[in-house]
Structure formats: structure tokens, C-alpha cells
Amino acid sequence: MNKIVLPTATSGIAAANIPSGRTTHSRFKILVDINGSLTCDVPKQSSLAALIKETSLIIWDEASMAKKENVEALDLLLRDLCNPKIVFGGKIIVFGGDFRQVMPVVPHKPQREAVDASLVNSVF
Q1: With contact defined as beta carbons under 8 Å apart, do 61 and 14 qualify?
Q2: I need a labelling partner for 66 at 20 to 30 A (CA). Which of 22, 29, 33, 82 fits?
Q3: Is 75 exposed, middle or buried (0-12, 13-18, 19+ CB in 10 A)?
Q4: Distance CA 12, CA 112 (A)
Q5: Which uninterrupted H or E stretch holds 12?
Q6: DSSP letter assigned to residue 10
Q7: Which of 3-17, 78-92, 102-116 has the lowest mean pLDDT?
Q8: Is the dihedral of CA 9, 12, 17, 21 positive or negative?
Q9: Which segments within the chain are labelled E, that is strand?
């Protein structure tokens, strides 16, 4: 069985505290400004795509700070690369963080919109 683990975090500060950690945006090429597009810029024949296919576990720290569109973009990427019929392409994803502590940043919007943008309101 594959033993590759990809540790990621929503913020750069948290990613720096994880050995070989990267931000989720950096690791999976998630667009910073989604604006209705749930795509990741990972070509199917790239070395990153090969690494993702071989990965057995993805850890996403501070997931409570991520916008739900970012998680949905990762789901689409993993389905596209691994298995289109299974959520997250069949990969095991561990979401960490304190969902009572920090919500996604939604500038110039009321708190209700930040809650709506969070992972807890995702289809997952």
C-alpha cells in the first residue's frame, strides 16, 4: 500500500509548522480567487498529478479557515485524477482545526456570509 502523506494547511504560518508542509493552495494549485470556478491548475500528466495519485493520506490543518469552494475544488481534482465516482477520488482526507475558533475570511461581508462560506456548509 502507498504510504505517501501530503500534509497541508490553510495558512502559511500553520504550514510552516508542519514538517514538509505546504499551504493547500500551493500543494493542489487551488486558485486563490475562485469566482465561480472550482478548478485546480494540475495537468493530468504532471509530476504533481502522479504524486497525488500515489498519495494515501492528505492532511488539511486549519480546515475551518478554508472556504468551502476550496474543499470542493480539491474534491473535483481528486475525482478527475483518481476515481470520479467516489468523494475525494477515494483518498483519505483528515480535516483538522477548531471549527469554533476561526472562520474563513470574507472581506466586507456580515458574519452570516462567512459562516455560509465555511466548510461546515459544504456539500460534504
Answers
A1: yes
A2: 82
A3: buried
A4: 26
A5: helix 12-16
A6: S
A7: 102-116
A8: positive
A9: 4-9, 22-23, 55-61, 92-95
Mean pLDDT of 67-84: 93
- Please report where in the chains the cell 467516489 appears, as a residue: 86
**What is the rounded CA–CA span in Å between residue 1 and residue 32?**
33
Q: Count the alpha carbons within 13 Å of 100 in the hemisphere toward its beta carbon.
A: 0
Q: What is the pLDDT of residues 22-60, one digit of tens each?
A: 999 999 999 877 565 678 889 999 999 999 999 999 999
SS3 116: helix
Walk me through the domains of the chain, giving residue ranges and CATH numbers.
4-121 (3.40.50)
Residue 77: name the closest of 56, 98, 67, 91 by CA. 91
Q: Which residue type is seen at 120?
A: V
Rg of the chain's alpha carbons, rounded to an integer? Answer: 14
Residue type, 111: Q
